[in-house]
Amino acid sequence: MALKAILPWTLFGLTQGKVTTRWRGEGAEPGQAAFLGMPRFDPGRCQDHCRECADACLPGAITLVPGEGPERPTVDYGRCVVCQMCVEACPTGAFTLASDWAFGSGTRDDLVWTRAAASPRGVTLKREIRRVFGRSLHIRHVDAGSCNGCESELQALNNPYYNLHRLGAFFTASPRFADLLLVTGPVTYAMRGPLLEAFEAMPEPRFVMAAGTCAVSGGTNGGGCTCGSGLDGVLPVDMYLPGCPPNPPAIIHALLMLLQRVPQRVRGGQLVPLEPPTGEPRV
Amino acid sequence: MSGSPVVVSEDLAPAELVTRCRAALGEGARMQFMYAWFPEGPTAPELRYVLHPGSGCPPHIWRCRPGDDPPPSLATTAPLLSWYERETTDLCGVVFRDQPLPQPLVLLPGASADRPPLVPGPMPHLSYTPAPEDLPQLAGTTREDVQLLPFGPIRADVLESAQFAFLYAGEMILHYHPQLFFKHRGMEQRFAGLSPRLGVFLAERVSGIGSVAHALAYCHAVEAAADCEVPRRATWLRVLLAELERIYNHLHYLGHLCHTTTLKVGEAQGKYLEESAKQINSRVSGSRLLRGLVTPGGLRREPQLAGLAADLAQLESEFRRYTDRLAATTSHLDRLMTTGVLGRQLAFDQGATGPVARACGLDRDPRRDQSYGAYAELPLSIAIDERCDAYARQQVRIAEVFNSIDVIRVVLAGLPCGWLSTECRPPPRSEGLGWAETPRGTAYYAAHLDADGRLARVKIKSPSFSNWRVFPYTVHDSNMMDYAINEASFGLTVAGCAR
Question: Which residues of A touch B157 (CB under 8 A)?
Fold first, then answer.
């Protein structure tokens, strides 16, 4: 009886074929067409005494800073929720729509726009990660007050399209088996304690990833009397991944970066061109 | 708000509340929610009760100034109001006379604020020393067979944070107590002082997988305050976005339900179809969760509709094949049928909404009954099932996916030309009530503007707040083996409940 019910599913599964995408870590990934990532910023187009973008930015990612002349905008992509309001508000086209989503960064500073973006800053991750974990990673996810958007995309990692397991990364139930604490949400007063306990329960070496703009900076939802402003000051963060929510390839990219299998793409708030492929096989 | 019924409002004295509530319920009305706000300073709260007098009628609002005496609790008359009253006590400092369960709801045991967070004024300070939940005395030395299982707030897999306490004997769950407010972010406070145009980005981030419907309910409220007529083209495109949201949510739901009945290929296929739908969303809107298009007054930019009809036809044929297979899988159906039965009267009294209510035979859907936007012009069919169990909840959602695809097809074929948005600037001290049917049930937003035309108070009534209240009634006296299936069959979010 049971066989009669299950056999058609086996055949069904087999006839569906393989839908899993290849992962090259080269930026343009399948299935992400038309996805809008972080808006690009070209301060050369700014006009004096204009603050349209800053006024339209709910999470305060765009602020005006005094320079040599009139105030100029500066962009902290760690606060960006990709609402694209700056693109709409800017009268001169200094902000433009882009598909830039590979914004995982080992340092918080690299998420802030700077002119001298080309300086090749070394990845500051703990060097032993490769020796200890090899190419595998066990992840304990903790929702510290997300809107469930990040969870929706994290759950998508295990769908047949992304099939995270094939990259050697697994979600694990117990923090005692976990190498990486992946945190979403701005950290509410009530989740702060359980979050710290989960971190304490992890064996060393252990890593922390702030996934989604809320965990990086609080985003739109942080602050107030019940919420923190992300993980800074709560846990030592090894990987920042803004995005609202980050799409699954962005999360995969950040995980592979942590394992030093792909390079960081963002420097000074801009995606840098990939270096030509080296002899080392990727995935 | 275009095409929406006019909301009726009325002032009531505190002494009238109980009798009027009884009378209204006797005539078939249903209370929807209540909240407090402070139009004239932090010492003078005004209570608002929103009710539907009957199917097809516009909502009524009762306004009540409690004065110096505590207002009466309506929790014993209309049980679904109990959580709203407790929340109002926690966040607005209004205490209700004879509230049967006066414990805090939104603030965890051991948490206290030096002033109620939603009362206008300086930011309160919240202190928190974790304390145990107040559970019924079932376990203990005299009942050694009864055990307490606390589960959460961090649970296995990638799940939202919530803590569940099970009091159980063997396989039997005697009592179930969820603590759903670990994620309370104070979203309603966050709206205060914002311009109505920026508030929509917060509404999108109340419950991430209900971004469109929450943004719609919020915009409907702001548009009602501004008395603004949304262009017809925008109302049609809003329907398209809202139905795309329903599709990807219900596909996720089916994949997750298969996960709980351990139907592995069914799980993979459900989640693959969800991924296909999210990629369609991304092509249409630039956002996999369809964020960033809905704005007060219309839409911010044109969705990209090229290829959508073909994508949906492909999705529909794969979905049909998938659900035919589910319908022929007895191992899956056996686990759903008679699991998590929710009686119709209980569902009505305790406030069940959306597919959960429609699976109990409650024929309610604001897309038809309190029609908004373009729904009155579109071939909506409301799926109803009388069986009240997990199977009924699955069947309602399956039918809704097919209907959503049909509706989108008609939108694409008959999309009116015209403007995409219109000026929407609510005047100072105006207010509006808006609603929208999310994939999980009805969301309401009430928006009150201050003297500068900025948001003074926004109340969010989210469907998961309603359905989480109902859910435990299906868990008491059930068994452990069915719990995960039952929970999945409700399709709840914690973020929407905790806000």
Answer: 141, 171, 173
Classify residue A173 by its DSSP letter: S
Q: What is the pLDDT of residue B160?
A: 93
* pLDDT confidence band for A106 (50 / 70 / 90): confident
For residue A209, give the nearest of A135, A131, A112, A103 by alpha carbon.
A103
Q: pLDDT tens for residues B459-477?
A: 999 999 999 999 999 999 8
**B459-495 burial by CB neighbour count: b if 16+ within 10 A, else e?**
bbbbbbbbbbbbbebbbeebeeebbbbbbbbbbbbbb
CA distance B4 to B34: 21
Residue corresponding to tokens 């997988």: B209
Mutation site, B158, B188, B250, interface A, largest A CB count within 10 A? B158
> Can you name the residues that pair with A40 across neighbouring β-strands?
A96
Residues 303-322 of B with CB under 8 A from A: 304, 321
CB-based contact, A196 to chain B, within 8 Å: no
* CB atoms B288 and A247 under 8 Å: yes
Strand partners, B382: none
pLDDT in tens, B312-325: 999 999 999 999 99
Quick: pLDDT tens for B1-26: 444 457 888 998 999 999 999 999 99
Say whether residue A14 is in contact with chain B using an 8 A CB cutoff: no
ipTM rounded to 2 decimals: 0.91
Query: Per-residue pLDDT tens for A139-177?
Result: 999 999 999 999 999 999 999 888 888 888 999 989 999
Q: What is the DSSP letter of B364?
A: -
Query: B125: distance to nearest CA of chain A, Å?
Result: 6
Region of B205 (left: φ > 0; alpha: ψ -120 to 50; beta: rest) is alpha
Contact between chains at B201 and A35 (C-beta distance less than 8 A):
no
Name the residue of chain A whose CA is nearest to B279's CA. A31
* Domain range A38-99, CATH class: alpha beta
Residue ranges of domains in chain B, CATH in brackets: 8-128 (3.30.460.80), 187-498 (1.10.645.10)
Average pLDDT, stretch A17-32?
Answer: 71
Chain B residues 149-188 within an 8 A CB cutoff of chain A? 153-154, 156-161, 181-187
Separation CA B476–CA A121 (nearest Å): 58
Strands B8-11 and B60-64: parallel
| CATH numeric code, A129-271 | 3.40.50.12280
* Residues from chain B contacting residue A56 (CB–CB below 8 Å): 198
Domain ranges of chain A: 38-99, 129-271
CA distance B8 to B474: 35
SS3 A155: helix
Is A160 close to B272, i.e. CB distance below 8 A?
A: yes
Q: How far is A69 from chain B (nearest CA, A)?
A: 30
